[in-house]
Predict the 3D structure of the following.
Amino acid sequence: MAVKIRLQRHGKKGKPFYWIVAADARSKRDGKYLEKLGVYNPNQNPAIIELDIDGSVKWLQNGAQPTDTARNILSYKGVMYKHHLAGGVAKGAFSEEEAEKKFNAWLDEKAAKVNAKKDSLSKASADAKAKALEAEKAVNEARIAAATPEVEEVVEEVVEEVVVEEVASNEEE
């Protein structure tokens, strides 16, 4: 029986949500599967991927073939790298502890890259908001400057009246 690691679509129209499953290659896309390995939600930014790394490595070692998209997801989460390291341990190139150290170092480096990307996205968003605010202020100032002198005189009179009323109320207290 040929086993594939692939995506099984769920969710509603226009809002896909996928399960990452190990399934018989002959079964339907959304049909029967052997084991659910994780979930993939591309609707979020960044996409949410929850994956059973050890279960995925076990299926790869037993000969399961991932589809192209599933391979990209597995590679992103480090499953393919861990499978590669397990092959090195089986050949005696290095010990299990060294493989774990390499994998954990890779995970730390990957987490740092993802956090840097999130920070740059949030900074870019904040910069865009600041530029939009400055542009809006400039437009408002130009609009006020373009106002007729009669309106400016009326505004000055109203401001003077308010100041006089405040002074009078302060003197009464």
User: Anything to note?
Assistant: The two ends are 93 Å apart (CA to CA).
